[in-house]
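A reminder before we start the practical. When you read a complex entry, don't treat the lines as separate problems. The point of joint prediction is that each chain is placed relative to the others, so the output describes one connected object in space. Small molecules and nucleic acid strands, if listed, are placed in the same frame. In the example below there are two entries. Take a minute to note the order of the lines before looking further.
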Amino acid sequence: MNGPHDLGGQMGFGPVAPEPNEPYFHGEWEKRALGITLSCGAFGAWTIDESRHARECIPPANYLSASYYEIWIRALEVLLERHGFVKPAEIEAGHAREPGAVPKRVLKADMVAGVLAKGGPCDRPLDTAPRFVVGQKVRTLNINPIGHTRLPRYARAKIGVVEAVQGSFVYPDDNAHGRGENPQWVYTVVFDGEEIWGRGSDPTLTVSIDAWESYLEPV
Amino acid sequence: MSTHHHHGADGHDHDHDHHHHDNHYSDMQARVRALETVLTEKGLIDPAALDAIVETYETRVGPRNGALVVARAWAESDFADWLKRDATAAIASMGFTGRQGEHMRAVFNTTETHNLVVCTLCSCYPWAVLGLPPVWYKAPAYRSRAVIDPRGVLAEFGVSLPETTKIRVWDSTAELRYLVVPERPEGTEGWTQEELADLVTRDSMIGTGLASSVKGRAP
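Here is the predicted structure of the whole assembly.
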């Protein structure tokens, strides 16, 4: 979707502002937000793609004024409600009121190290050959799906070169919406700055994206 | 401020937020506390697991991991080759695996090319080697400008590259996580890997910085 998250090339946000000392957390709530988000992710009730899409669906004014942990929490509330774990009234009240869905797994303290060390690999074997080869010219599609996609707006309908075939991975555009993992080949596609940004672009600039096969067509 | 937080009768201590009196902060504090309470009462989360997650990223998984990888690549050409060929395996061999490090790629700076990593669509970041991302990495200013004005962004980090240096921006749009291997500073012949790692800044592994120069410091 053409949501507030798709920020590449937008203007007006001012300078990058690193903080002095860069604390990992700004107060207790950010720590709890990290822990709650990861713990609920361990339920196995939704995928990383669905959670990314929930974040993208936060209305633009809210998204752009929120810190990232706030974005996580707002999206998590949506996911917990969507999957039947909590009711909005319970969050409002700050207390449980009725039983809800039962997750496949509850993350206990003694499981944390193992779960974090394992991560969630999303490469999947494919028995079809990649459609594109290294060095091939390709064009990204001009698409504007209302659902989740990982093809950023700035890189649509642009001609680039396949630099690497990176393997086959879960296709987020389907997986985010419960349509299955439907893995595809993923390619690193590199574009000249001028192809993306036009005249006046930094002549020394190239930009790459990692693109699923269905984002691309031969030139 | 104590680094140990007690979760007492009302769930939280109060000594951490002296400097945060704005309403938004209080709103999020209350919102996250309510969510944690509901989820705990429902048996869906284990507050001790939240503590374990936070402790992991506050004390164990951070940019020192990546610095040790870079230092080893500087010191051992066989390892550097492995890192180029199969970063996931090379990095895993040093014990750095797991969440947001499942599929790693290492990109090497040269005198001709400087690499810069961004996630324009969300906050993708190689946690296994760099830990949690800083706020600026997840914020709109960096995400919007890194792909269109990387030299302007670098200037805000105090980095000025020759006009002829090519700039390659990697937008992490899929599940590959990028680690920049900065150029080895001059004058470090014979240094141990531990000493070399001290020169590898977090920003130099994102591409918003360079490895520290050895001027004025001795191993």
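Discuss with your neighbour: The CA atoms of residues 154 and 197 of chain A lie 8 Å apart. What might explain this?
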